[in-house]
Amino acid sequence: MAVSGNLDYSGSSLALYRFLREVVTGGLAQPHEVEVLWGRLGPPALKDAYGTVGIPVILNAAPKAYDVVLCNSILTGSLVRRCADQCPVVWWIHEPRFGADMVRRGPDLPAAFTAATRIVFPTRWQATDIYSEWLAHENWVVVDNGVNVDLTPQLRPADLPPGCFTILQLGGVERRKGADVTLEAVRRLADPRVHLVYVGPRHPNFMPELTAEEAARIRFAGPKPETQVAAYLQHCDALSCPTRDDLVNLAILEALQSGLPVAASSFGAIPGTIRHDWNGLLSPVGDATALAANLARLRDDPALRRRLAINGQETHRERHTVARQRDALLTILEEASATARR
């Protein structure tokens, strides 16, 4: 059983759905029975997607009826201890620094770190720099995030005019993810040929006022299903990800696989995947001037875009395929279950 507070298109919910989809549809030699216990936090946007691949979404469950429970994100931390009394629990923690703030505010969360059979982080940086004060036992492991974008050619989205240099920011449209930094960088470019599209749910903390000229080339497309996201990845010219607090997020990995050049901040674990001038361009956190300079380089240098794209696809193949992630997580889950049976 997997436990997820959210069933929305946020990073952690989407990562869980994609992993479980691979488990049940990936042609594995050993079949796995999977159910998802939903904590009813937010809208169930992914419920139908789970149903399409044959994974039931349930509202109540007895943990002792399962071989192992996978608790997804910090939001399920309060359930880790309760489940751990009945069966092995693997806790998959996606959150960067804001997750540690949640642990400090939640009286039940610190004890969950010792109750979990295994803890999975997508980056070592989380374990060594963010959550180390609660990791009293060596019960944690790192599994790189993986993605599998559908590379089937898609029609150009109607809101992407031809003949322009279009920058994509993908994911939650909020200040934590640097949505304001991208906007300021585009303003600094002052180029009517440069367009910007935000694809993802819009947060109330980022509601900028646009001039009439800006509104013609800066658009908020809202959240999109996977096939439409793939179309934006195929038809935009660069991804902007100037995050203030994030991991090597799914947007970066999807851009790498799709051959879309990445301009990201140097926050946290990102430089461990994005090497400046090799498979992407990096700028200091919050520095719109430096981001604008990197975006200008991408706009003006097609050869640079091609080189970054080729190297980015190599990075994806070597470290971030969904099959690699699936196999690593399944091994951890199976080992946790086997340990309980001994």
Topology:
Layout (H helix, E strand, L loop, with lengths): L1 E3 L6 H15 L10 E3 L8 H6 L4 E2 L10 E4 L4 H8 L4 E4 L4 H9 L3 H7 L2 E4 L2 H7 L9 E3 L22 E6 L8 H11 L4 E6 L12 H4 L2 E3 L5 H10 L2 E4 L8 H9 L3 E4 L15 E3 L4 H13 L1 H18 L2 H20 L1
Parallel strand pairs: 1-2, 1-4, 2-3, 4-5, 5-6, 6-7, 8-9, 8-11, 9-10, 11-12, 12-13
Helix pairs in contact: 1-13, 3-5, 7-11, 10-12
How far apart are the termini?
A: 20 Å
Taken as a percent bin, the fraction of beta residues is: 5-15%
Helix content: 40-55%
Helix count equals 13
DSSP, total strands:
13
Q: Describe the biggest sheet?
A: 7 strands, parallel
Strand order of the largest sheet: 3-2-1-4-5-6-7
Order of helices and strands: EHEHEEHEHHEHEEHEHEHEHEEHHH
Instruction: Indicate the overall shape.
Output: globular
Roughly what is the average pLDDT, rounded to an integer? 96
Unreliable stretches covering 5 or more consecutive residues: none
> What is the alpha-carbon Rg in Å?
20 Å
Put the structure in a nutshell.
The chain has 342 residues and is α/β, with parallel strands linked by helices. It contains 13 helices and 13 strands. The strands form 2 sheets. A 7-stranded parallel beta sheet has the order 3-2-1-4-5-6-7, with helices on both faces. A 6-stranded parallel beta sheet has the order 10-9-8-11-12-13, sandwiched between helices.
Please characterize this protein's 3D structure.
The protein is an alpha/beta fold. The chain is 40% helix and 14% strand. The chain has helices at residues 11-25, 47-52, 77-84, 97-105, 109-115, 124-130, 179-189, 212-215, 226-235, 250-258, 288-300, 302-319, 322-341; strands at 2-4, 36-38, 57-58, 69-72, 89-92, 118-121, 140-142, 165-170, 194-199, 218-220, 238-241, 262-265, 281-283. A 7-stranded parallel β-sheet has the order 3-2-1-4-5-6-7, with helices on both faces. A 6-stranded parallel β-sheet has the order 10-9-8-11-12-13, with helices on both faces. α10 (250-258) links the parallel β11 (238-241) and β12 (262-265). The model has no long low-confidence stretch (mean pLDDT 96).
